[in-house]
Amino acid sequence: MKSMIVRCLLVAAAVAAIVLPQVPAGGQPTAEKKWYKGNLHTHTINSDGDSTPDAVAAWYKENRYNFLILTDHDFVTDPTALNAIHGAAGKFLLIPGEEVTDRFEGKPIHLNALNLPSVLLPAGGKSVVETIQRNVDAIRAAGALPQLNHPNFHWAVSANDLLAVNDLPLMEIFNGHPQTNERGGGGFASLEELWDAALSGGKRTFGVAVDDAHHFKAFAKNLSNPGRGWVMVRASELSTAAIMAALSNGDFYASTGVELESLQVTPTEISLVIKEHLQTRYTTLFIGEGGKVLKTVQGRTASYSLNGTEKYVRAKVLASNGDDAWIQPVFGAQSGPAN
Question: How far is CA 189 from the centre of its chain?
Fold first, then answer.
């Protein structure tokens, strides 16, 4: 009998060693993070889109996205029923959101409120900066994550405006809508140049790529269709809390088609491997203060080691087929404190 008990205890110990996660010194089990593809900006017939929330959610799920935030103008679609139909543990998740739609002297000032529980009215303001700031503060107070949308839509937001705004964690650096002027021109900065201006001025803002999709029933260059820009978020699980935390911390990259096989970011180095795609060729630019290219690397593997003099370093991958990817900045010793 005694020998049988001993054998049972040994078997139990062996099973426990197999199934229990490793617990580090801090006392919390470690969990391997995974990549989740998501869209942060899209519309339905609850504002100015052409399709129902059900049809929009179905499109993104069928096209292998992992999460979606519906951001209708001044309207929050409760995702509970949609998650009951389309949600799948570890595979697809809908998160509530709203495009808070404000204006100053004819300039559209739009901010997404990500993971917003209920409708938030525009806060208004006496200048572009005040309008942005008051909405950022209101979104934060509501427990949501603010994101500045399409700064060049009607050429609404300048670099000086961005430098005067505080606590803005996310801004669009690519927007797939054909009227958002993401490349700039005619003396106006591109969205990426605006981002560099903010980073160079000490702002710790991360760049996102989005669809801003409105049209799901017809596809054309002059329509705002889905599938044009997205984020790849690295999180411990597919949950609202984990996705929001990763977005807040910059643990993601933005893309219009480039996919990374691996990405390692530390306070002193950025290294990446690009997933091979047919006959596509790749160039990676490591970019620092003022948008200056610090290093150029050809091929699928690239890395940059910070030397301690940089304010920030970010990376951009250019593909020969026209696709891009943007890796979030590492802030060096010369950078100011976080917002």
Answer: 21
Q: What is the pTM of this model?
A: 0.89
Residue type, 19: V
Average pLDDT over residues 108-121: 98
The 10s digit of each residue's pLDDT in 162-216 is 999 999 999 999 999 999 999 999 999 999 999 999 999 999 999 999 999 999 9
Residue 154: partners with Cβ closer than 8 Å, 6 or more residues away? 106, 107, 108
Distance of alpha carbon 305 from the chain centroid = 24
pLDDT at 29 over 80: no
b/e per residue 203-240 (b: at least 16 CB within 10 A) = bbbbbbbbbbbbbbeeeeeebbbbbbbbbbbbbeebbb
The backbone torsions φ and ψ at residue 73, rounded to the nearest 5 degrees and listed phi first, read -65, 120
Rounded CA-CA distance 246/241 in Å is: 9
CA distance 146 to 287: 25
Nearest to 230 by CA among 63, 55, 33, 102: 63
Mean pLDDT, residues 82-93 taken together: 98
Residue 142 has a CB neighbour count (10 Å cut-off) of 17
Residue ranges in 43-190 assigned as alpha helix (H) = 53-62, 80-86, 128-141, 159-164
